[in-house]
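Cross-check.
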Amino acid sequence: MRKLFSLLLALIGFTAQAQVTFKITAVPANTPANATLYIAGSFNSWNPGSAAHALTHNADGSYQITLPAATGTMEYKFTRGSWAAVETNASNGSVPNRTYTFGTGAATVLCQVLNWEDLAGPGGGGPTSTAAANVSVISTTFAMPQLGRTRRVWLYLPPGYATSGRRYPVLYLQDGQNVFDAATSFAGEWGVDEALNLLAANGQDPTGCIVVAIDNSANRLDEYSPWNNPAYGGGQGDLYVDFLVQTLKPYIDTNYRTLPDRANTGIGGSSMGGLIATYAALREPSVFGKVASFSPAYWFAYPQLAAYAHAHPANPNTRFYFVSGTTESTTMVPQMQALRDSLQRGGVPAANLNFNTRTDGQHAEWFWKREFPAGYSWLYAPATATATRPAQTLAVSLYPNPTARELRVSLPASLATEALLEISDARGRAVLRTRVRNGQAVDVSRLASGLYLSRLTAGGAVGTSKFTKE
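Predicted model, tokenized:
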């Protein structure tokens, strides 16, 4: 009887997550005969050319793909391998994301593609560009020697750049196709150029900012994560950050009037772009002093990111802006919040951590377009005495390191008060909290072996140190 009951539970669990077949019954007449069609969506981080998500071309001219069992609601679109070749509506405008909610039985969803963005519009050349006059393309084949590839790179120069003679801060944004131009975006642009031009016209952006946007490619998932996800790839993020720091930024600083210091250099992106922007700021604290993280795909490599953030505390003066919808996924807000808390434990003051959730927020370009002006205005707000005052550093050391049983705390001899000692593990979890004085021994024998971060606070000053428990 117990075995029968277990079998019934297993059958119920199987039928609750049923596979679904997506079938395209009609495509535009100008679809190339040898074209490969793909499905891209929330289930594969919107990879437009994932080989695992190529549709089969049937003898009757239709295309289809069957996705494995899942639960909840997925969003998706069809492409011919890139966002420049995404499906569009009858007038070649962007179409809302398609959606499908998994049910309890197998299903077939019939679809039609009305247009391809790159094959529609006047003369088949696509829609008219919406980029502002002060947006240009530096190169369509900018060399990425670290990756052995080339990429289109966009440039926004603030109003008055040509006549001001001033130097400007810089913001580096990922997924450049979507930043300025609806003609190149896959689901609508961010409108960064219009937003910054409007802020300048209204006197709400007195400093101005140069924006550099780097296109993604079919290697997007690989380039936007330094760690490999067994299901989706990744692992080339360090090379991509090397490109930004060693090749692109020196080029921009040499050829344009920039303020090249870390305090005036920001990096940002959405989804996977938010992941690589966060990592870049942690890995290169002397280069990037501002981070815009919109709906970050931390889930792609969250354990590794959390451990890295713990082992490489951010510069306390780096400013982080987080925003996402509350229902984008089950992990989005919790992981974003956990990273925010880890940064704060590592020494970044609350004043430099701007955390936002929106009940209507979605994993979509329109949402990031709406939220960009607020994020930019906070990150690039004119400096104030309070905001720019460097955090006081408390000179501390812990010894012996590594240790098996106890740590001794070395604090400045001039410190007359106790310091608060907080120890957290490699995943950012607090494991010990106590007050100590200079020379005091702290028992750590009960801690598991591994890497730990200590944070000591006294009189408004903060000191951090790492140690290994044997």
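The first strand starts at residue 20 and ends at 26. The chain has three domains: 14-124, 135-388, 397-469. Passed to J.P. for a second look.
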